[in-house]
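Example complex used in Figure S2.
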Amino acid sequence: MFEARLSQGSVLKKVLEAVKELVTDANFDCSETGISLQAMDNSHVALVSVLLKADGFDPYTCDRNIPLGVNLGSLNKILKCAGNEDTITLKVDDTGDTLNLLFESQNNDRFGEYELKLMDIDQEHLGIPETEYDAIVVLSSGEFQRICRDLSGISESVSISVTKEGVRFQAKGEVGTGNITLRPSSSVDKGSESVSIKLTSPVDLTFSLKYLSNFTKAAPLSDKVTLCMATNTPLLVEYNMEECALVRYYLAPKIEDEE
Amino acid sequence: MHGWIFIKEYGKENSNESLLSIRLPHPRTGQAVRYILQDQTLLEIRKLDCESQRSWFIGSTVQSDGSLFCLTPIDPLFVLIPILDTCRRKTSDSNGLFIPLEDILDGEQYPSLPKLSVLNNIEKYVGWVCDCQVMNSGKVVFRLNDEKVMAWLKLKISHILSNFDSFNSLKQLIQHMNNDSIDDRLQKEIRLKATIEIVMEYLPLLWRERLMAVYNFDALGRLEVSNTQIADNPADYYARKTMRKEVLPPKGPPTKKQKLSTGQAVLAKANIKGMKKLTTFFAKK
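Predicted assembly (544 residues):
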C-alpha cells in the first residue's frame, strides 16, 4: 500500500512540468524516504533526478518499495486538472497497476478523482557518486533562465567560466558573440538576486544551450539555482525546495578537441 | 535420442556401409572440421540451419534440432595438399623430402588422417600433384610438386568453366553482371574469377595468389574495384543475401512511436557533438 498526501499540490505540478520536457516515460520509485525518479534523455547526455521527500507529505505511508511506471505526458495531463491550491493525494493499492489521484480544493468543496494506468518500465539506474566540485555558483533561477534564453539566440553552446571575480557566460555564434558576467554580491539585502561563488579552482566548460534552457523549466520550483562544475565532469544544475522537493539535472560537457 | 538428418547423393550401388565421421584440418583455415567417409569416398558436410526455427518429426517423436546436413563428395586432394606441403619440409635450397604415403597420413595431429588411406585410388590421386619415386623395396614415396598442383588446379578450373552454364548457383553469382552490355572478354574474366574464388575456398591463400597471377584479368582490372568485388566474391554474395533478409519488415505490430514533448522535440535537434554519454561518467547500478 502506498499513500501520500501533499497539501501543496502545485509542487508536484511544477516538478512534472519540468521533467516531462526531458523524459517520456519514467519510474517514480516510492520508498520510506520519499518518491524519487531518475531518468536520462533520449540521447543519454543529460539526466534528471527528482526527490520528493517523505517529510513534504502528510501523511506518507509506504510499506514496501514500489516503482510507479508512468508516461509523464499522461500524468501531466491529469495533474493539469488539479487547481494550484489543491491538495493532492496519491494512492496505489496492492495490485499496483493504477495510480489513484485525488484533488481536494482548499475549501473542501470540490473533489476530483483520477486514475492513471501504470506501466512496466525497464530503466537503467545510474549510481551518481559524491563529487567534489571545483566551482559552485548560486544565482537567481530567473536570472539563469534569462541568460540561457538570451544566449540561445546567438549560439548553440555556452561556455561558463568561473573565477574569483565572477561567473561569465559566453556564446559565440555566426551572428556575433554574447557575454554576460555576474559578479558575486556581498549585500544581504538584495536577497534572491544575489550571486554567490564557492571556488577551489577556476573552471571553464562548454555546454549545450538547448539542454540548459530545458533545465530552466524547473525554475518555478525555486528562487535559486545552483550550478556545480568540475573539469571533465557533468554539470549539476540543482533546484532545491528545502521542505519537499529536490530536482537535479546532470549534463555532459562539450569537449571540443575530441573530433 | 538425438540424431542428425542427412541428405546425400544416391550412389550407383546401394551401399549399406555406415557413415564414418572423421575430423580433419580444413585445407584453407587449418581448423578441425568434420568430414564423412563412406564407400571409400570422402564427403564434405554442409549444415543448413534455419536459425533454430525448425524441428524434425521422426516417427512419433520430435527432434528439436531442425538443421539439415548435406553430404557432397569432395576431392581428397584439397584436404591433402596442405598436409603434403608441410610433410615435404621444403626450404629455399632444397625441394624437400620424399615420404611414403603412410607416413604422410600419420595420425599424430589428426588421429583420423590414416583412415584416408582407404580412399579409392588414393595413391593415383596423390601422384597427380606429387613427384613419385619407387624405392628398391617396391615402396612408393611422394613429394609435392608445385607445378603439378598448379596444372591440376588449372584443369579443375577449366573443367568448371566449360560447364559453367549448367550450374544455376554459379550463374546466380554473376547474375547482375550478366548482360549484353558487357563485352565477351570481360564476361569471360568475370566467370573465371568467380570460378577461382569457389575453388580457392578449399586451399590456403598462397595458392590463390599463385593462380591469380597465372591468369589475365586485364578487362576486369579496368572495372571499378567495388563492382568486381560484388560480382566475383561468393562470400560477398552471401553477405548481400543476408543483408536483404534483414531489411524485411519486422514481424508483429510496429512499435508505437513515442510522442515527444515540446522540450524533447527541441532537444532532438540539439547538437550533441563532443558530449559523452552520462554512462561514461556514472556507472550503472
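The first strand of chain B starts at residue 5 and ends at 8. The two ends of chain B are 44 Å apart (CA to CA).
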